[in-house]
Amino acid sequence: MAKQNFQDYLAKTTRLIPTQIIGAYILISGLIPPSSQNSKWIYTIIFAFLLILAPIIGNKNRQKRKQSKLTWKQTVIVAISFGLWVSCLGGPLKLWFPQYYETWIASIAVIMWSMITPLLDKETEGPGPFVFIPGEKNGEYT
Asked: Does the keyword Membrane belong to this entry (predicted)?
């Protein structure tokens, strides 16, 4: 029983991390020339767009699996998760506030947040909205 509870806890640490959106951010940010004069604004616009898109995609994935929509609490968790991961990668924070930005602080924040998330979210059951399951098609497993 304790082993199952621990496995459930570990699974919950990843359920509300928007991995698809983080991946998109990494790929898009790799396309932006570092010498661009407008890079602060470009990164900020991309961050804001993906931040808005994260719960939309999460709800779409849950709908395919015939699960209920994300609650407000889950939406906030997804948004904070995305923001922390982007800050860990640098992102707009590093560009707008370089004097305050420290990669190691952002990394610690991501780890701590990932450990706290399962305690905050009691509603998420089954695969999370951003978890890819091989063989899954339209919410059904083949």
From this structure: yes
